[in-house]
Specification:
two-stranded antiparallel sheet, single chain, globular, alpha/beta, 5 strands, about 15% strand, about 120 residues, three-stranded parallel beta sheet
């Protein structure tokens, strides 16, 4: 395993809950099937979407600020037409503004999937 795989494994085995900003109720979209895959493998999903009331059997919060518990791992999905650069865009300088490095870890239940659900995700660690 290389350093990136090691970091991804550390993050995925640290958090029991993934808050998904931009979660979708449309099964054909990555913003639905990626969190569904994570949920099937034991993670609790907290969907955030201003246009839905329930996604993947979970209540949906309109904004990230409305989530009533401390945030751990946050996964953000944006429509491709709203993304100025692709997934290989370099991260901004300085510490990450959200994500795993700024929250308290929780032990994640269940086995770790053999491969990440989405190879285009960027994780700031």
């Amino acid at each position: 395993m290389d350093e990136i795989d090691t970091n991804i494994e550390r993050i995925l085995t640290t958090y029991a809950t993934i808050t998904v900003v931009g979660a979708s109720d449309t099964p054909a979209k990555a913003a639905h099937y990626v969190p569904a895959h994570m949920q099937e493998h034991g993670w609790r999903i907290i969907p955030v979407n201003p246009h839905a009331s329930e996604i993947l059997g979970e209540p949906v919060y309109r904004t990230l600020a409305e989530v009533p518990e401390p945030l751990g791992l946050v996964d953000v999905f944006r429509p491709s037409d709203q993304t100025p650069d692709g997934p290989d865009r370099p991260s901004p300088p300085g510490p990450p503004r959200c994500g795993c490095s700024s929250a308290s870890p929780r032990e994640r239940p269940g086995p770790l999937p053999k491969r990440p659900a989405c190879s285009t995700s960027r994780i700031a660690a």
